């Protein structure tokens, strides 16, 4: 499939005049752009593959090459279609719109207004920061051929699964994408190794959390995942750590991994387990997606369904703000008890309300859940705050989650993050309330995910940041994206980086750490903040498995050696 010429032409010609976003290195510190070999080849360069090259490559991958036609193309130029454009705009906030595309991403900032459906019709449709082409991967051979072609032609390679990444790691100007989304195999089987004996599932790299949960449930099984059904499991989620409703019960997503089946940058097909290629296993399991290899499938533990209680609580900020935040404090006070009882909670403080849910209690009765919440409800009654509380006991996590995990409308949240240990949180209750109140007052959303990782949870050594393991809460501080107001979006981005994240960091020793999947892409000192004590070893392994930097993404291990120039070309930093 090849794009209409206007899309390709504008994609190249107009790229340079698009609004730019900051990169970790200034243009001055980069080696010269143009077609310099220190930069990846870019559309318009002499080195860019000819139409005949693309045609031959397309044939070599069985016609699975997709030339990008941005979703917003129906809103511009000669392909404008009023009805379809209205449909695209209406669908834009829903994850499926982007996950089912070979190029679109959920974080609009990294689309850089390329062929933006919300821009006026007369604005040219440019491919811009979307990948130029993507291979709809169906086999290991597709991956190997794409890796070979991209390296032969010095192209920027982008591994993309669902496009959920908050850092824009699954898109890239002038990129050739490996689109993993349609690898949907799902094989439940018995597994035996030194580390684990029991049920397991081997899933293709395109399996999403909701698909996994539904299929496993029918077989009486539960698979660890996050709260969002559209996030992919084998990509950034598990490779980056993987928090979710079952974290306290079974450990992180990464802790479930028994085997990776992957392709290295040099094209070698490889299996990595705790005992075979164990250093690659270690790096892939927590060191961040899109860094060491292209994962074709992974094998993870499967747990038997068990009784699970779900709960939620909401109350508005309707009267005195002081009173509202006393209510929030009452909820904060029970967070350690939820973890101690084996549960997790997700909540968001907005300027107008507190919304708690899902609270998940695996192997917990409704009576236990209600007793944990009783002091909060009593306090809310005493404060005369009207609330809505609900809890329910189910025979499986799947059913509990279906009842208590609210639908996620996810497109376009800009975020920062901080991990908070129990002693820091319980030792300074007023400090956290004041910081959160200050953020909410300025229009920020403060989402918390609480959990507890006991040392009794067995897992092979992996590269998850130890700070993630030691924390009680992962805070995500967000500001909703406004599709029609880029200037305000940039202002909000500055608020996150310069005000919101520092407000939480100020409460933590040495400024604290953050979960590498849910944090600010402009985080200063991200190597330490995201990877902690593992960074040095992870960088050594990057040099072993990907010495030429074939895999690059903002804030991935070794990414500081490359940066984007003003025109978004990816170049080595001198
Ligand atoms: C709405 C929403 C809800 C979320 N909820 C949670 C949550 O509950 N818990 C949690 O821990 N995180 C959560 N996240 C964060 C999520 O885990 C990350 O965004 C993660 O990177 C998504 O992975 P993906 O593969 O689906 O996305 P993509 O954007 O496609 O990829 C993310 C990264 O993984 C790489 N990658 C993808 N596939 C492969 C592959 N096969 N091989 C090698 N590299 C690959 C990409 O190159 C990229 O670097 C959420 C994010 C969003 C937007």
Features:
single chain, 574 residues, alpha+beta, Uridine Diphospho-n-acetylenolpyruvylglucosamine Reductase, domain 2, Uridine Diphospho-n-acetylenolpyruvylglucosamine Reductase, domain 3, Vanillyl-alcohol Oxidase, Chain A, domain 3, 3 domains, seven-stranded antiparallel beta sheet, five-stranded antiparallel beta sheet, globular, disordered N terminus, binds flavin-adenine dinucleotide
Question: Mean pLDDT, rounded to whole units?
Answer: 92
Distance between the termini: 38 Å
At the first level of CATH, the class of the largest domain is: Alpha Beta
Largest beta sheet: strand ordering? 15-12-14-13-17-18-16
CATH architecture of the largest domain: 3-Layer(aba) Sandwich
Which structural class is indicated by helix and strand composition? alpha+beta
Biggest sheet, in brief? 7 strands, antiparallel
Number of strands: 20
Bound molecules: flavin-adenine dinucleotide
Number of helices: 18
Q: Unreliable runs, pLDDT <50, ≥5 residues?
A: 1-35
Beta-strand percentage? 15-25%
In helices, the fraction of residues equals 25-40%
EC number: 1.-.-.-
GO molecular function: FAD binding; oxidoreductase activity
Pathway: Secondary metabolite biosynthesis
Organism: Hypocrea jecorina (strain QM6a)
């Amino acid at each position: 499939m090849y794009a209409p010429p206007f899309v390709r032409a504008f994609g190249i010609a107009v790229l340079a005049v698009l609004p730019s976003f900051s990169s970790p290195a200034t243009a001055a510190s980069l080696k010269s752009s143009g077609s310099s070999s220190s930069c990846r080849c870019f559309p318009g360069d002499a080195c860019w593959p000819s139409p005949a090259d693309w045609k031959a490559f397309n044939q070599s991958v069985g016609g699975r090459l997709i030339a990008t036609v941005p979703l917003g193309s129906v809103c511009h130029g000669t392909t404008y279609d009023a009805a379809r454009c209205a449909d695209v705009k209406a669908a834009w906030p829903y994850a499926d719109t982007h996950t089912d595309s070979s190029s679109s991403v959920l974080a609009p900032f990294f689309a850089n207004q390329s062929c933006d459906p919300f821009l006026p019709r007369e604005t040219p449709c440019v491919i811009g920061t979307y990948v130029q082409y993507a291979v709809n991967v169906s086999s290991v051979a597709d991956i190997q051929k794409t890796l070979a072609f991209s390296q032969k032609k010095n192209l920027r390679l982008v591994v993309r699964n669902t496009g959920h990444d908050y850092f824009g790691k699954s898109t890239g100007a002038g990129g050739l994408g490996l689109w993993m989304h349609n690898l949907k195999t799902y094989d439940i089987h018995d597994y035996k190794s030194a580390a684990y004996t029991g049920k397991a599932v081997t899933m293709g790299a395109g399996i999403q959390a909701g698909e996994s949960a539904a299929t496993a449930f029918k077989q009486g099984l539960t698979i660890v995942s996050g709260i969002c059904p559209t996030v992919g499991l084998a990509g950034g989620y598990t490779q980056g750590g993987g928090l979710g409703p079952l974290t306290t019960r079974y450990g992180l997503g990464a802790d479930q991994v028994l085997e990776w089946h992957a392709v290295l940058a040099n094209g070698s097909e490889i299996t990595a387990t705790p005992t075979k290629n164990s250093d690659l296993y270690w790096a892939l399991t927590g060191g961040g997606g899109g860094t060491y290899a292209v994962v074709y499938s992974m094998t993870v533990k499967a747990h038997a369904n068990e009784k699970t209680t779900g709960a939620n609580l909401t109350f508005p900020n309707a009267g005195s703000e002081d009173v509202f935040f006393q209510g929030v404090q009452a909820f904060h006070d029970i967070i350690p008890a939820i973890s101690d009882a084996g549960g997790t909670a997700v909540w968001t403080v907005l300027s107008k309300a507190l919304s708690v849910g899902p609270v998940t209690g695996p192997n917990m009765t409704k009576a236990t859940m209600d007793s944990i919440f009783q002091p909060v409800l009593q306090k809310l009654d005493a404060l005369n705050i009207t609330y809505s509380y609900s809890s329910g006991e189910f025979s499986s996590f799947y059913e509990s989650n279906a009842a208590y995990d609210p639908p996620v409308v996810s497109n376009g949240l800009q975020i920062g993050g901080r991990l908070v240990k129990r002693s820091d949180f319980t030792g300074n209750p007023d400090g956290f309330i004041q910081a959160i109140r200050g953020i909410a007052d300025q229009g920020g959303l403060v989402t918390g995910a609480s959990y507890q990782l006991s040392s009794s949870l067995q897992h092979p050594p992996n590269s998850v940041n130890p700070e993630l393991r030691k924390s009680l809460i992962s805070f995500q501080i967000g500001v909703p994206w406004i599709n029609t107001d880029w200037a305000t979006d940039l202002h909000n981005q500055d608020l996150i980086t310069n005000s919101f994240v520092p407000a939480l960091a100020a409460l933590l020793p040495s400024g604290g750490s953050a979960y590498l999947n849910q944090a600010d892409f402009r985080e200063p000192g991200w190597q330490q903040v995201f990877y902690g004590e593992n960074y040095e070893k992870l960088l050594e392994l990057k040099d072993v498995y990907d010495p030429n930097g074939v895999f690059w993404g903002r804030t991935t291990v070794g990414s500081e050696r490359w940066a984007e120039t003003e025109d978004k070309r990816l170049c080595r930093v001198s």
